[in-house]
Amino acid sequence: MKKPDVDDYLQEGIYGTKETKPGERKRFLGTLRERIVVALTKGQVMQKKGLDEVDALMKEYPNAKLLLNGEISSRFYKPYRTAANKHGIRHTTVYNQESDTDIGAVLALDEAIEKEEIWIDTSTDENSEKEERGIKGFFKSLFKPVD
């Protein structure tokens, strides 16, 4: 590794310190993908989907921290903050005007854990509900066998 010279100090003074994976950090509310225990989209946070799973993971990872997207109204992430307080988990609301992300909340550690699956899948519930309410559900109810 080369020794920093005057030019390096000037560049750091003008542009700030160099950051690893800035795109990843913008998307995941300031943390890296390799540190994430679970991530929720804005829609999942607003609909309180995944709250039970996040609560269980907070119990499993007591050293984690909860990062909440500041673009979401605080009334939507209040249950997540309550769960974090219950388990003694630090929580922070991240306001980043420069990036637009679909992430609503992230439970992350300070070190890498390389968890394979970080998303909570709530699509199966939504699809079955939509199917029941949709045209298929209508025809199913019409042609239901009579006892």
Provide a compact summary of the structure.
The protein has 147 residues and is an alpha+beta fold. It is built from seven helices and four strands; from the N terminus they run ααβααβαββαα.
Using the alpha-carbon principal axes, give the shape: elongated
Oligomer: single chain
CATH superfamily of the domain at 19-120: Ribosomal protein L30/S12
Straight-line N-to-C gap:
79 Å
What features would you highlight for this structure?
alpha+beta, four-stranded mixed β-sheet, 60s Ribosomal Protein L30, Chain: A, 15% strand, 7 helices, 147 residues, single chain
Helix-strand layout with pairing:
Blueprint: H1 6-15, H2 22-27, E1 36-41, H3 42-46, H4 51-60, E2 65-69, H5 74-87, E3 90-94, E4 103-108, H6 123-133, H7 135-142
Parallel strand pairs: 2-3
Antiparallel strand pairs: 1-4, 2-4
Descriptive account of the structure:
This protein has 147 residues and is α+β, with helices and mostly antiparallel strands. The chain has a domain at 19-120: Ribosomal protein L30/S12 (60s Ribosomal Protein L30, Chain: A, 2-Layer Sandwich), CATH 3.30.1330. The chain is built from seven helices and four strands. It has helices spanning 6-15, 22-27, 42-46, 51-60, 74-87, 123-133, 135-142, and strands at residues 36-41, 65-69, 90-94, 103-108. The chain has a four-stranded mixed β-sheet with strand order 1-4-2-3. Strand 2 (65-69), helix 5 and strand 3 form a beta-alpha-beta unit. Helix 4 (51-60) runs parallel beside helix 5 and helix 6 (123-133) crosses helix 7. The longest helix has 14 residues, at 74-87.
